[in-house]
Amino acid sequence: MSRKYILVNDVGTTGTRAVIYDTDANVVGDCYTELEQIFPRPGWTEQDPLDIYDKCVEVTLGALEKAKLEASDISAMGIATQRTTSLLWDRKTGEPVYNFITWQDTRMSDVCERINRSGLFRALHLAGGAFQRLASVSGGLKRSPLGKLLITAGHFTVTPGMSSAQARWVLDNVEGAAGKAEAGDLLFGTVDTWLVWKYTRGGVHATDFSNISATGMYDPFGMRWSPLLLKPFELPGGLVFPEIRETNGYFGSTDVFGAEIPIRCVVADQQAALFGETCFEAGSVKCTNGTGTFIDMNTGDEPLASINKLTPMIAWKMDGRTTYMMEGIISSAGSSIQFLRDNLGLIEKASDSEDCSFRCDDTGGVYVVPAFTGLTAPYWDPYARGTVIGLTRGTTRDQVVRATLESIAYQCKDVVAAMELDTGIEVKDIKADGGASGNNFLLQFLADVLDTVVERPEALEATALGAAYFTGIATGQWKYPDDIVRVHRVDRRFEPRMPASTRDALYAGWKRAVDRARRWADVEPCD
Ligand code: ADP
Fold first, then answer.
1. Top mutation candidate among 10, 269, 329, 337 for ligand 1, by most atoms within 8 Å of CB
2. Which mutation among 439, 445, 492 tests ligand 1's pocket best, with the greatest number of atoms within 8 A of CB?
3. Taking Cα atoms as reference points, which of 266, 244, 259, 242 lies closest to residue 78?
4. Predicted model pTM
5. Least confident of 328-332, 397-401, 404-408, 437-441
6. DSSP 8-state code for residue 305
7. Is the pLDDT of residue 526 over 60?
8. Domain 329-457+489-517 has what CATH class?
9. What crossing angle do the helices spanning 191-199 and 49-67 adopt, rounded to 10°?
10. CA 265, chain centre distance (Å)
11. What digits encode the pLDDT tens for the residues 404-436?
C-alpha cells in the first residue's frame, strides 16, 4: 500500500488524541486518552512532559491499530497543541528541568502585578491610552505600524500564563537552572517544541509562528522577538529558544512508530481550528465552543491592533506568506452548562440543555450571566460574578437552562461586535465547532442574535482537521485552497430568522443583566 494517510496528534490540556485521515479527509482511525494534571498547590497547574510524550505515542499506536495501518502507510504527521504551556530541558541529557507549567497556572500573579504597576508600564498605559483616544477619531492612525504598537501598549499587561513568566519561575526556583541557562545548556519550548524534539530524538528544536505568537514573547507587528515583552522577566541571554519555522514547514522525521514519518505541520490549537474551518479569507470567523469559547477572525496579511483589548496574533505562515488573526476569549461557555449539571443538578447531561431550551418559547425575561471568574472580552471586569436575574414565581427550570445557553450566544455577540469595531470588517457568517456546537438550539440562537449565518462542519474537532489540512498541503496531497474546500464537509447551516425588534430587545436586556453582574466582588468585606 502506498503512503496516503495523514496522522495528527492533537494535544489539548485535558487529553491527547491521535487521528488518521485518508485522502478525502475521512477519519479512518482515532484514539484518545486523558493527560495527567498536577496541582502541587492551589493555583499551580503542571503537566508531566514524559507523560505527555508517552501518551502521544500510545494514542498514535492506538489509532494505527484501529485503522489497521502501519507507520509505513503514513505520508506525514502534523502536531496541534494547547498554547503557551512551556518547559525548560537540558540540551545534553534531554532531562526536563521541571514539569510543564500550564497556561492556567497563576503562581506568577504577584510578580506580574508588580511589573504591571511599575513606572514603565504605567507610562506605556498612559501614552497608549492617549493615543487610543486620538485613534478612535482617526482610522488612519490606527493602521500605522507605530499606531498599532502604541494602541497595544496602551492595554498591554504581563500575565502569569505567559511562557516567559513560567520560564522565570523555573529559573528562580529550581536549583542550578539559572546557571545552566547562562551556560547555554537549557532549551526552551512549548508542548509542540518538546514533542518535535522527542519525536526526532533530539534532532530538531523548532516551533512554528502560530505557537510562538501565543507565548507572549513575539511581536506580531514587527515579526521578531519583542524586547518589550522579554524585558520584564529578564530571561538570560544563554537560554536557547527554538527556531521558528513555517506552520507547514519541515520539522524533521520520526522513526518512533517503526518507519520514518516526516513531521510537516506544527500548529497552535485555535489557529488549527481556524484553518480546519476553512476560514482562509480576511474577515472570516470561527467560534470554538468548548469549556470556554474562542472566537478568531482571520485579518489577512495585516496584523491589526485592538482598542477593545482583543488579541492580535499570527494565524499561520505558509509558502512565505503570513496570515494574522484577532482573538477574543470567553472564559465560561460550555463550563456554564457543566455548572447546571454538576453544581445545580438541573440537567443530567450537557446535551439535555437542548431539549430544555426548545421546550420553552423564551426565558420569560430571565438572564444568566456566567461570570464565575469575572468577565473577559470586551468587559474585562475581574470583579464581575455569576448572576441570574429576572426570576419570577413562574420561572421554570427549562427557562434557566435556556438562559444559560443564550448567554453563550450573547457573549459571542459582544466579542464579534468588538471585532467589527476594531477591524472595520462586517462579519457575515460564522463557522462554529467544539463540543457545545453540537447543540442545535445554541447555534440557531447564535445565528439569530448575531443576524448572521452560522455554519457547522461535520467534524466538530476542527483542530485536528486543521492540522491534517496543513500537513496534506505540505506533502502536495492537497492543493490550497481548492482541494481543501472540496474535501471539507458542512453538516448544517443555521439561517437567522429572528425579527430585528426582538433581537434588539433581547440584547438590550442582556446588556442590563451584565451591568448588574459587573463589579459585584469589588467591595470591602462587611464586619
Ligand atoms: P474542551 O475542548 O474545552 O475540553 P469540548 O469541545 O470537548 O471542550 O466541549 C466540551 C464542553 O462543551 C463542556 O463544557 C460541555 O459542557 C459542553 N457541551 C458538550 N456538549 C454539549 C451540548 N450538546 N450542549 C451544550 N453544551 C455541551
1. 337
2. 439
3. 266
4. 0.94
5. 328-332
6. -
7. no
8. alpha beta
9. 70
10. 17
11. 999 999 999 999 999 999 898 999 889 999 999
For 174-213, write each residue's pLDDT tens digit. Answer: 999 999 999 999 999 999 999 999 999 999 999 999 999 9
Mutate to test the pocket of ligand 1, among 103, 291, 331, 437 (most ligand atoms within 8 A of CB): 291
Amino acid at 348: E
Whole-number Å distance, alpha carbon 173 to ligand 1 midpoint, is 37
Determine the distance separating the centroid of ligand 1 and the alpha carbon of 344, expressed in angstroms: 17
Kindly write down the DSSP assignment for every residue of 133-161, as one continuous string.
HHHHH-HHHHHSHHHHHHHHHHH----TT
**Distance of CA 110 from the midpoint of ligand 1 (Å):** 32
Judge whether 5-107+160-276 and 329-457+489-517 match in fold: yes
Amino acid at residue number 209: F
Look at residue 361 in the predicted model and tell me its pLDDT: 96
Rg (Cα) of the chain, in Å, rounded?
23
Instruction: Give the residue whose CA is nearest to atom 8 of ligand 1.
Output: 290
253 is written with which cell numbers? 522525521
Which ligand 1 atom sits nearest the alpha carbon of residue 14? 4
CATH architecture under which domain 5-107+160-276 falls: 2-Layer Sandwich (3.30)
- Residues contacting ligand 1 via CB (< 6 Å): 12, 14, 290-291, 334-335, 337-338, 350-351, 353-354, 434-436, 438-439
- Domain spans of the chain? 5-107+160-276, 119-155, 329-457+489-517
Which residues on neighbouring strands pair with residue 78, listed in sequence order? 8, 265
CA-nearest residue for atom 21, ligand 1, is 436
Question: What digits encode the pLDDT tens for the residues 25-71?
Answer: 999 999 999 999 899 988 889 999 999 999 999 999 999 999 999 99
The CA distances from residue 266 to 18, 196, 294, 417, in Å, are 14, 9, 20, 31
